[in-house]
Amino acid sequence: MVNLKINNIDIQAKENTTILEAARQNHIDIPTLCNYPDLSIKSECRVCVVEINGQKKLHTSCSTVVKDGMVVKTNSPKVLNSRKTIIELILANHDANCTACPKNYNCELQSLANKLGIDKNRFPTVLDIQPIDNENPVLIRNINRCIKCGRCIDMCKNVQSMGVLDVMGRSKDMKITPAYGKFLTDEFCTYCGQCSSVCPVGAIIENDDTDRVWEALNNPSLHVIVQVAPAVRVSLGEELGMEPGSIVTEKVVAALKYLGFDGVFDTDFTADLTIIEEGNELIERITNGGTLPMMTSCCPGWINFAEQKYPEILDNISSCKSPQQMFGALAKSYYPKKMKLKPDDIFVVSIMPCTAKKYEAQRDEMKIDNVHSDVDVVLTTRELGKMIRQMGINFENIEEVPFDKPFGITTGAAAIFGATGGVMEAALRTVYEVVNKEELTDINFTAVRGTEGIKEAEVEIGGQKIKVAVAHTLENAKTLSEQVKNGTSPYTFIEIMTCPGGCIGGGGQPYGTTKAVRDKRIEAIYQVDENMPIRKSHKNPDIIALYDEYLLKPLGKKSHHLLHTHYSSRKK
Amino acid sequence: MKIKEILSKYPKESEYLIEILLEIQSSSKNHYISSEDVEQISKYLDIPESQICSVTSFYTLLSMNPKGRYVIQVCHDVPCFVNDTTSIYEKLVDMLAIEDGETTEDNLFTLEITECLGCCNEAPAMRVNDQVYTSLTPKKVEKIVKDLRGEEK
Ligand code: SF4
Ligand code: SF4
Ligand code: SF4
Ligand code: FES
Ligand code: FES
Q1: Does residue B43 form part of some domain?
Q2: In CA terms, which of A358, A463, A555, B23 is 20 to 30 Å from A238?
Q3: Residue among A192, A379, A383, A496 to mutate when testing ligand 3 (max atoms within 8 A of CB)
Q4: Residue B124 shares a structural domain with residue B74
């Protein structure tokens, strides 16, 4: 233990803690900007400077380790002055038009300036306006707002192994951009949006599609329906001021009805459907000598990654569409038939924790009539939060309403799709019972739960022991993909999710997502599973009915047309 | 030398990036690193292209734009400056019809202003590719440029 004084308070801290950590553990706030929980220490911005006795220079508290006898001042006039100057200098090179920025009220720079009492800037602006990267359907990069903190670089390079973004040029010409200052494209960016989720300002944000949804809702000739992804029910509350991990499933339904949707459905239903199709595909591959290991296909960030970096293993990826796209396909085929509506009059919106889903929805492979997208618009959790705020809905107190029919019943197996390991566990619950023709004594496959980067398990299926693996983040996906490519993979079935913790940590989730917050969301999603009366996809009576009256059988002709697809190389 | 040959001389470790870039640049006829080079290095060292561009854009010595056959670098540091390097630079501008950072249309010359070349006691100085010329006068410069042009004919 180290003894020190911060702002005249005696403090004990563990060896090797930073001054910043020691202060925060003792409820002393030091402002930071480049620092972000779980990412590496950059000591780039110098906002966190403090005074240490006997030292003339100020030190960055995020990168200075505590020492015995240290006397630290976090708010001396010298410190406050220096912080203020730093923020003023940043603002002088920043497009600080806050009311025209989507991060208004959610911006770390703005709130820092406010905290430090900055209401004018002593320095004249030196901003040299650069073009905005807005030519893709997913993310907008406005480098005129970039404060060069480096968080996105760290996320993209070290967590996602992509390295799309880096520092270009130096001193006053320094910019954070892709190689050659290019704009983001589907040739080299997976659209996972993780960069956008850590950017402290409005320099990388999702392409806002809320206007298109308002327009559809106000068009009386359209029948506008919406699906809600598993992970959204444990995060939308947080976006609207509730505690992380609040379970708000039926509040989401109520709010969407209030916004005017004609039908509010659960992506969990098509997650159950995915399990039936994908489970059967796995059984078929095992019994008929198909390509193994089979890899999951529900994460579009991973699909982009595989198409860009590992085209050699595309045959290993399940041909099943993602739950979002299975819903879209049914919404434009089965649903209008059942409801006696014209497919062209149906407008399908998705609420997703994900930015990559925006890209997936507009892929050519995802149009059952080859003309119109099956899913018309994808909104992130954050965008739905915005619409709810615009409508002035008191979300926390809204009266809960269940999802609509005909996709009314869902299972716990579908809910856990939102967490890393969830698709694997859901699939094992079904594959085990279908093949072994016996009921599972314990349906909780805890070996595939948790936030370990790569998890493994062994299961007995049809008298044969098979190995399975689960990975989240693209860095870990890379490790497993290399094995598959080299023919050294010991696994039969692999689940891959792009985002840390799975979709509950998706690129479109509320800002401020950290490991601690992800853990709470994961806990909540397993709670949702526990609370469900049915917890295995193949026991869902609405799924059974859908096969009876429409799809006929898993992997059948109709399924192939509506629910399966293929992917192709984009490697240059 | 072909890029593949250059790469094969180095271990596949990113700490050799700068050496690799320097060698590729100096073996290139137009003294630059092309985007194909970047792609090859990225594959060889298994690092993202953005990281390579980040390095090339940091060091002024590294260029991603093709330069002329002869890169003329005129020293502009104080000792040369007081010895009237300006007249040297102006003579070059006059003869080549280009300014700092530009390349002639026939891709023969690139003109650059640079920092101390290490021959201050014989200022003013300039460098053409690897060859340093000292104690310059506008007349000397005229001859050098003419010779270089002649060499090409
Ligand atoms: S979306 Fe993902 S892959 Fe693309 S730049 Fe951002 S972090 Fe990198
Ligand atoms: S884009 Fe955002 S996260 Fe990236 S360096 Fe700029 S301010 Fe930081
Ligand atoms: S893990 Fe989930 S949120 Fe992240 S890219 Fe994949 S599908 Fe989207
Ligand atoms: S937070 Fe410490 S230097 Fe940026
Ligand atoms: S100042 Fe010109 S060579 Fe040193």
Answers
A1: yes
A2: A358
A3: A192
A4: yes
